[in-house]
């Protein structure tokens, strides 16, 4: 991993806008990946750094970049429950139905971890609730497995 990659990933994690702006001015690769495949955007989103994520997206970061496990920034915010960042990613064209290595989607993450505001947001924007993971489970199956009755109600509405 290059020093520039380390710097931009660290700046994204902390939401250091000044450093990110300078790296963007220097034409740093915004989709560079660390040893786990995390991009600056994935890191900024996962760490609830809305302004950093917005800056990276405005500068052309790939909204659908996937880490080594196939996870996207949208999957990360669905897991964490950051609806405002999910909305931002969707506004920049995030693919709602990308699947990671085990077939999971952002919608599945939201249902499994009780992030029902994000679940509703994804459904409102057209996320596909019929996709199955590698075990053949749907988002409804996963919500039921977790006892997330609110998600079950949302999915069946």
TrEMBL record:
ANK repeats lie at residues 36-68, 69-101, 102-134. The keyword Thylakoid does not apply. The keyword 4Fe-4S does not apply. It holds the Pfam family Ank_2. Keywords: ANK repeat, Repeat. InterPro entries: Ankyrin_rpt, Ankyrin_rpt-contain_sf. This is Ankyrin repeat domain-containing protein. It comes from Pedobacter frigoris. The lineage of its organism: Bacteria, Pseudomonadati, Bacteroidota, Sphingobacteriia, Sphingobacteriales.
């Amino acid at each position: 991993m290059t020093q520039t990659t380390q710097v931009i990933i660290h700046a994204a994690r902390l939401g250091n806008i000044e450093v990110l702006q300078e790296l963007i001015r220097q034409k740093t690769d915004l989709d560079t990946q660390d040893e786990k495949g995390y991009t600056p955007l994935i890191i900024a989103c996962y760490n609830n750094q809305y302004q950093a994520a917005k800056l990276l997206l405005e500068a052309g970061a790939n909204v659908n970049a996937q880490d080594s496990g196939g996870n996207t920034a949208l999957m990360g915010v669905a897991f964490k429950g950051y609806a405002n960042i999910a909305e931002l990613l969707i506004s920049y064209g995030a693919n709602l139905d990308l699947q990671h290595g085990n077939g999971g989607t952002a919608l599945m993450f939201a249902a499994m971890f009780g992030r029902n505001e994000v679940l509703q947001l994804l459904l409102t924007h057209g996320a596909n609730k019929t996709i199955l993971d590698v075990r053949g489970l749907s988002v409804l199956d996963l919500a039921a497995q977790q006892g997330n009755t609110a998600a079950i109600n949302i999915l069946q509405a």
